[in-house]
Design brief:
two-stranded antiparallel ribbon, 21 helices, alpha/beta, globular, single chain, 3 domains, Rossmann fold, 434 Repressor (Amino-terminal Domain)
Length: 580
């Protein structure tokens, strides 16, 4: 029976689950004594209040709302629900998360996720409180510690196939029986429960799960665990049978969440190649330490945390394993790719959340030509921010592409480039077949024409560009270029891309990365400029639009308007923020 169970709950359940009864009288549950743990008391009180807001649902009702997992087991059983409310212990976050989510939904909260986040904040505060208390209290005596270990091992799993049980009289056992003596709150306080030790147990189980398929690493890890007092039985049990899944109660837990590396693909490939060579030679991590001089702890950490190994460690591994030259070069190539992805992400992380056009324009190189267009602001290696953009008067083709999914800020990037060209004294022609901020520049000095239809006439477009010369250049900026692929002015556009350097013309186009494909001859020629700006790219082959390959570390991230990757034709991707 739970220590904090209320005998009246059992009486209530007996009275209301008689044959033919259809309702259960809702009652508050008894709250545990937590005077010596103010943060845990606040969390528990808020949880009871949340249940009150939800209409005091029973433990089984909460269990039913949480539901079952793929194996048809309850994700969290009713006894675990009661323990969360009534035990004077910090509940696991995975269990608390699903219970709060259900109660917030039943209670009609407008922001269910916000309520879950609020409880997560309180739960973290409890973690800090309990670890602090554990650090200032003397360790519990050996008997108490042994009891804790036995209870943890013997307690039934919430994912166990055992479902609701009934006593010999057929009565449901939602609430624990009342005949067993329970320690008082004062006795519990004097037990000096070591919360830090309990947290460490959770971390050990999580690490054992991550290492389960690597028996060598698991053996080394559990060997270290066995040398710690109080964990020998748990370590033996974890080695004999698979520990509880790293996800708690059938849902993904964020309690031990590690951010996904931006070089995930490259690191996984590198680790897989290393593992192939290691298993071929039947090396354990201890053997790797003996062979390479790099500690087994470092090898295990690199594997389990998706970290980039040291390059010298790879060189030592390759040498001691006697790898062929092609295998050696492949490992180092994968390492270089992973490092490049990590460095690119670092440069992206230091970008300002926003920057105005005027502020960015003040950073430009005073020696920039009239055909230089401001595309973004960035900084390499943590250096001061600076401006980047293409010189449309040079390169292989007088063109520049801006690609990205809807909402990524393509039109804003075009407006920034148009404003920078106008500020340098370069005339522009605008084309926006669909509603776009680009149309708002139509009345600016230096704007020769603005086409806002889904077709551009051959003669009209040719006339707009007729005044261009190397001394007085004109740049055409086109939004939603995929719409204009078959426009009447396509021959003029093709001629611009072939002879623009001589005639003083250039093209900047923007379009949806999923639709901006070279189906039309002039778009195919624009692609040969091999430069452009990718805004929040989502497709693996998005880099083809701007002449560079992009890995999984760059694509597929949440759309962040105005954040992108700039390629100026030199083979390097620059993380930039687009001024607005």
């Amino acid at each position: 029976m739970s220590a904090g169970a209320d005998p009246h709950d059992l009486h209530e359940l007996t009275q209301n689950h008689q044959k033919g009864a259809e309702t259960v009288v809702a009652q508050p549950w008894k709250r545990p004594e937590l005077a010596d743990q103010p943060d845990l008391k606040k969390l528990n009180d808020e949880l009871h209040d949340l249940r009150l807001d939800a209409g005091l649902p029973s433990a089984r009702t909460i269990r039913d709302r949480v539901g079952k997992d793929a194996q048809d087991y309850w994700i969290v059983n009713h006894q675990a629900v009661l323990d969360t409310f009534q035990k004077p212990d910090r509940p696991p976050w995975g269990r608390l998360e699903v219970i709060v989510h259900v109660l917030a939904e039943v209670g009609g909260h407008d922001d269910v996720d916000g309520e879950v986040s609020r409880f997560k904040g309180m739960w973290k505060q409890v973690v800090r409180e309990t670890v602090t208390q554990a650090s200032v209290q003397p360790p519990a005596d050996s008997a108490s510690a042994d009891d804790d270990d036995v209870d943890d091992t013997a307690a039934p799993s919430e994912d166990s196939p055992k479902q609701d049980t009934k006593d010999s009289g057929g009565q449901a056992a939602e609430d624990p029986p009342t005949g067993r003596e329970t320690p008082s709150s004062r006795e519990r306080a004097t037990a000096q429960f070591n919360y830090a030790e309990e947290s460490l147990k959770g971390l050990i189980l999580n690490a054992a799960q991550a290492l389960w398929y690597d028996k060598d690493a698991l053996r080394v890890f559990l060997g270290v665990v066995r040398r710690s007092d109080g964990f020998s039985r748990m370590a033996d049990a974890a080695e004999e049978r698979r520990p509880a899944n790293a996800t708690f109660y059938g849902v993904r837990s964020r309690e031990f969440e590690v951010p996904i590396s931006p070089a995930r693909l490259e690191l996984v490939t590198l680790h897989r190649r290393l593992d192939e060579h290691r298993l071929k030679r039947k090396w354990s991590f201890t053997d790797m330490e003996n062979q390479t001089g790099v500690s087994s702890d470092a090898w295990i950490r690199w594997y389990t945390h998706d970290e980039l190994p040291e390059r010298d460690a790879l060189v030592a591994f390759s040498h001691m394993a006697g790898l062929q030259m092609e295998d050696h070069v492949l490992l180092l190539g994968l390492w270089d790719a992973a490092r490049a992805a990590l460095e690119a992400q670092k440069r992206s992380d230091v970008l300002p959340p926003s920057i105005s056009f005027d502020e960015a324009w003040s950073m430009r190189d005073p020696a920039a030509t009239r055909m230089w267009a401001l595309a973004g602001v960035g900084g390499a290696g943590g250096e001061d921010l600076t401006t980047y953009g293409p010189d449309l008067a040079s390169g292989t083709v007088p063109a520049f592409a801006v690609a990205g999914p809807p909402g990524a800020g393509r039109s804003t990037a075009l407006v920034t480039m148009a404003r920078s060209l106008l500020a340098s004294g370069t005339q522009v022609v605008l084309a926006a077949p669909r509603p776009s901020p680009l149309r708002e520049l139509a009345d600016r000095d230096g704007v020769v024409a603005c086409f806002d239809q889904e077709n551009i006439g051959h003669d009209e477009f040719e006339e707009a560009l007729s005044g261009a010369s190397p001394q007085e250049p004109i740049v055409a900026l086109m939004d939603d270029a995929e719409v204009l692929g078959e426009c009447d002015a396509r021959r003029v556009l093709r001629n611009l891309l072939e002879h623009g350097f001589d005639e003083g013309t250039a093209l900047v186009l923007a379009g949806d990365e999923g639709k901006l494909r070279p189906h039309y001859p002039w778009l195919d020629k624009a692609k040969k400029a091999h430069r452009g700006l990718l805004l929040s790219p989502q497709e693996r082959h998005a880099g083809d639009r701007i002449g560079i390959k992009t890995g999984d570390s760059v694509v597929g991230r949440p759309i962040a308007p105005g954040r992108g990757w700039l390629h100026l034709g030199d083979g390097n991707l620059l993380a930039v923020a687009v001024p607005c």
